[in-house]
Queue: 2 jobs
Job 1
Amino acid sequence: MLALPLAATTTTADAASYHYKNCTKLHKDFKHGVGKKGAKDKTSGTPVTNFKKSTSIYKKAIAYNKRLDADKDGIACEKR
C-alpha cells in the first residue's frame, strides 16, 4: 500500500474545504464572512468588523467563487 505524504493530503483537503457555492454556504463556517487581514467593510452604515480575518482562507474562497466578494472590499460575504 502506497501512503501519500501528509502535506499532500492536507493541502488538497484544505483547499477543497473553502469551495463555497454562495454566501449561505460560507456562513455555515464563518457566520459574519471571511476577509483579508486589515480589510475594511465598504458601507455607508456601521461597518462589519467581526468577520474571520484570514487572508489565506479568503484567497481560497475567492479563487473558487469571485462573486463572494461582490463589492471587492477584501471581505467575502460580510454580514452583521
Job 2
Amino acid sequence: MGEPATLGEVRTWPPLVSLAQAARALGIGTTTAYDLRRRGQFPVPVLRVGFRYRVRTADLIRYLEADGGAS
C-alpha cells in the first residue's frame, strides 16, 4: 500500500484522481477501495468515467478535513 498521502499533498492533485490514488489518500488498500466502491460504501462519491473509476479531489479534501486530516 505504501505511505498514505498527506492532506497537503492531496491539495496539489488534479481535479479527478483514480480510485487507487484516492485509496492512498484515505490510507486504505486498493483492493479494499474497490470492494467498498462495489458495496456503495466508499467514503466519498465515486464517478464512473468510461471504464474507469474516478474520485473528485475536492471531495477527498473535504472528507480529510472533516476527519481532522487523519489518513
